[in-house]
Design a protein that fits this description.
alpha/beta; 7 strands; 2 domains; about 30% helix; about 240 residues; Glutaredoxin
């Protein structure tokens, strides 16, 4: 169901706004101009839909209290609880990456995404706590971070496998899936705020499961190109 927020009341129709577009280079055909204007109207509508989605997410009621005592080793190698990972912030953004002890090297897609987050991590951490969780020893995670030249990401080791198992991202054969989870401090308790729940079962035919908006800068950039996302290509750790 599509809803309209108070902020959208009185907005001009997207098609009317799209008429203001000017192709930046001369020589465009009438066919191109018409198609680009129609596309721009869709882009404006998409922007408005995404604005509504963000507002709907931020208006979620309080999530469940995390009652299990998950244990971690923080970036200094000290024992930590989930609430300890907040530091002085009220919100904690976590990304569980696929770098378990059974893997010789981390997941290339996780690595690609973390590389883009690294460039924004110092700014993100002004507003919220940001922790990258993994099953490998924290020292091993940081060794790879140094190899990639990452300086602003904070890596944390999950102690035991309860956290991964409870999220449903650790398989019986030791393989893993990534998980993006946002927690909120509520006094001396921790609540779930939001977790990515776009599973494979929810993916459309021919697509990998992905969030909306897509959090991967790689795919967002390729989506702007004529070829789009290759069906059989993924990033590598080294080229």
């Amino acid at each position: 169901m599509t809803t309209t927020t108070n902020a959208e009341i009185g907005l001009k129709p997207a098609a009317q706004l799209a008429e203001k577009a000017k192709t930046p280079f001369p020589g465009a055909s009438a066919e191109y101009e018409a198609a680009r204007q129609a596309l721009l109207a869709e882009e404006i509508e998409f922007r408005r839909r995404m604005t509504r989605l963000v507002a709907q997410r931020q208006a979620l009621p309080p999530g469940p209290v995390i009652t299990k005592d998950y244990r971690f080793k923080d970036e200094q190698g000290f024992d930590a609880s989930l609430i300890d990972l907040f530091g002085d912030k009220d919100t904690l953004v976590t990304y569980f990456w696929m770098y378990g002890p059974q893997r010789q090297r981390p997941c290339p897609m996780c690595t690609n995404w973390l590389g883009s987050v690294e460039g924004n991590a110092a700014d993100i951490k002004q507003r919220v706590a940001l922790k990258i969780l993994g099953r490998s020893p924290v020292e091993r995670q940081y060794a790879f971070a140094q190899e990639r030249g990452w300086r602003d990401l904070n890596f944390v080791q999950t102690v035991g496998d309860d956290y991964a198992k409870d999220l449903g991202i650790l398989m019986d054969d030791g393989s893993e899936y990534p998980a993006l989870v946002v927690f909120q401090r509520d006094g001396d308790q921790v609540r779930l705020f939001w977790a990515s729940e776009m599973t494979q079962e929810m993916a459309d035919p021919g697509q990998d499961p992905r969030d909306a908006p897509d959090i991967a800068a790689l795919w967002s950039v390729l989506d702007l190109t004529p070829g789009g996302r290759p069906a059989d290509w993924y990033p590598k750790l080294k080229y």
